[in-house]
């Protein structure tokens, strides 16, 4: 009977201790298994704490009790209300584009092609000036200098040799601010005609006649021919028959 009792799967002590904690012998000491499990978990948490603190040192981060790093000044959304204030994409796949296509906010131009209404003048505005409503703005054309004069009028006269319309040349010259260079119009026209055909010289004579009194005065024409006679030695270099012509 004793042998049968010894071969039984549970002895008396084991049967009575079924509900008690199992113990493990370590270095001659009996320690409960639950204490060992807790010690392992605490050691693992400490290792994780040391690893995170060494990696995030100097960045101003703190470590929570669970071992998770937290940015200073950042509130972790723990409630649905906190998640609503989060501007990150719900799906986490934003395209990186600005909200409203760059049209929202203060001090922006708005969407391309947007048409704004005419802003009404506020009389109560401290910067309001009564004289602004009575102002008349005109386009100011600067007078042409010698270099700009020749560069601008040469193509006009050359085109005149093609179409022969003196009215068109007159309208184009009126849009220019010739200033003191008015007398140079006949000078340039005759100089270009000397290098061209006989028909160009006849057209130049008609052009000077039509421009006299509208664009240039008789005094300007007299001054222009005086200058042509003075520059005759230079004109002979390009047109040998210039004195006879």
TrEMBL record:
Domain MI, residue spans: 148-245
Primary location recorded for the protein, binned into one broad class: cytoplasm
GO terms classed as biological process: negative regulation of DNA-templated transcription
Keyword Protease among UniProt keywords: no
Highest taxon in the source lineage: Eukaryota
A Pfam family it matches: MA3
SUPFAM superfamilies in UniProt: ARM repeat
Family annotation (InterPro entries): ARM-type_fold (IPR016024), Initiation_fac_eIF4g_MI (IPR003891), PDCD4 (IPR039778)
Gly residues composition-biased segments: 99-110
Gene3D superfamilies recorded: 1.25.40.180
Compartments where found: Cytoplasm; Nucleus
Similarity remark: Belongs to the PDCD4 family.
Identification of the protein by name: Programmed cell death protein 4
Organism: Cepphus grylle (Black guillemot)
Lineage of producing organism: Eukaryota, Metazoa, Chordata, Craniata, Vertebrata
Gene: Pdcd4_3
């Amino acid at each position: 009977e004793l042998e049968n009792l010894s071969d039984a799967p549970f002895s008396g002590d084991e049967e009575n201790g079924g509900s008690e904690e199992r113990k493990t012998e370590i270095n001659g000491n009996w320690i409960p298994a639950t204490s060992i499990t807790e010690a392992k978990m605490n050691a693992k948490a400490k290792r994780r704490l040391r690893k995170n603190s060494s990696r995030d040192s100097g960045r101003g981060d703190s470590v929570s009790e669970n071992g998770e790093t937290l940015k200073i000044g950042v509130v972790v959304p723990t409630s649905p209300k906190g998640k609503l204030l989060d501007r990150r994409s719900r799906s986490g796949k934003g395209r990186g584009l600005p909200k409203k296509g760059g049209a929202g906010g203060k001090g922006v131009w708005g969407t391309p092609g947007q048409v704004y209404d005419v802003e009404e003048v506020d009389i109560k505005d401290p910067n309001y000036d009564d004289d602004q409503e009575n102002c008349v703005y005109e386009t100011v054309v600067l007078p042409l200098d010698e270099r700009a004069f020749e560069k601008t009028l040469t193509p006009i006269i050359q085109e005149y040799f093609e179409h022969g319309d003196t009215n068109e040349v007159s309208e184009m010259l009126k849009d220019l601010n010739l200033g003191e260079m008015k007398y140079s119009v006949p000078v340039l026209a005759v100089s270009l005609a000397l290098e061209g055909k006989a028909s160009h010289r006849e057209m130049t004579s008609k052009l000077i006649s039509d421009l006299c009194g509208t664009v240039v005065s008789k005094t300007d024409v007299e001054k222009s021919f005086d200058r042509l006679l003075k520059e005759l030695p230079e004109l002979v270099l390009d047109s040998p028959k210039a004195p006879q012509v």
